[in-house]
């Protein structure tokens, strides 16, 4: 078993899932993969189960009934990882918007002292490919908004390409995480900082999916906008140690 687990949440990712799995397993550093599939009607789960024959003891799948949300998928994966001996637990999309080669760089950042390493689109300018300008601006200024409200020094607060050291996920009460979309990503970063963990950003190039359908929605952005205020106000009434 590797000391590193990559959690990939899926819903209708049949075009991408085999390619992303094979790419991760081709890396020089060994990673295990856990796919958390929300009952994909396109057969994503079946593809993963077939691939398990090629990668015994390295590829795992947890299947859930219905589309329950990105945040709950990661929480499910975090708990699964903590029941085992993984030292580093990763969040990564299935659609190649996150380059699997960067998994090694995120892991190295944690090996070198980071507790949480973020694959950042904005630490060195704006490194986004194939997004319309309206979405680039929305994402960039969402991070500006988060920094202003929360007073945290994270350039890419909504990033979803992350390496957690085990102790971060052991410390944060996962059953009290409130949000499921972009706000989930913000909440995990905010609480990691409040608990005193070292959060570092690693520059990446984010490339929008070329196959499959984006899961982004107005509801997810709305949750993030108001969720930031809720998280900040809530932090005034809680002690983190």
Automatic annotation (TrEMBL):
InterPro entries: DPM1-like, Glyco_trans_2-like, Nucleotide-diphossugar_trans. Keywords: Glycosyltransferase, Transferase. Pfam families: Glycos_transf_2 (PF00535). It comes from the Bacteria. Residues 6-172 form the Glycosyltransferase 2-like domain. The keyword tRNA-binding does not apply. GO terms for molecular function: glycosyltransferase activity. Belongs to the glycosyltransferase 2 family. This is Dolichol-phosphate mannosyltransferase. It comes from Sphingobacterium griseoflavum.
């Amino acid at each position: 078993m590797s000391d590193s687990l990559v959690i990939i949440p899926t819903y209708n990712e049949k075009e991408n899932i085999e390619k992303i799995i094979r790419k991760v397993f081709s890396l020089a550093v060994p990673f295990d993969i856990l796919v958390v599939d929300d009952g994909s009607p396109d057969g994503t789960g079946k593809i993963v189960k077939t691939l398990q024959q090629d990668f015994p003891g390295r590829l795992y799948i947890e299947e859930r009934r219905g589309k329950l949300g990105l945040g709950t998928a990661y929480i499910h994966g975090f708990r699964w990882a903590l029941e085992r001996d993984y030292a580093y637990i990763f969040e990564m999309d299935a659609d190649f918007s996150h380059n699997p080669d960067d998994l090694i760089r995120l892991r190295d950042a944690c090996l070198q002292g980071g507790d949480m390493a973020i694959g950042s689109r904005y630490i060195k300018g704006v490194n986004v490919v194939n997004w319309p300008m309206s979405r680039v601006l929305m994402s960039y200024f969402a991070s500006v908004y988060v920094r202003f409200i929360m007073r945290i020094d994270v350039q890419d607060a909504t990033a979803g390409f992350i390496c957690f050291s085990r102790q971060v996920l052991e410390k944060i009460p996962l059953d009290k995480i409130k949000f499921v979309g972009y706000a989930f990503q913000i909440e995990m970063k905010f609480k990691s900082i409040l608990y005193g963990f070292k959060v570092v950003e690693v520059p990446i190039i984010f490339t929008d999916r070329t196959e499959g359908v984006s899961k982004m929605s107005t509801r997810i952005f709305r949750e993030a906008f108001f969720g930031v205020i809720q998280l900040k106000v809530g932090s005034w009434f809680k002690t983190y140690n």
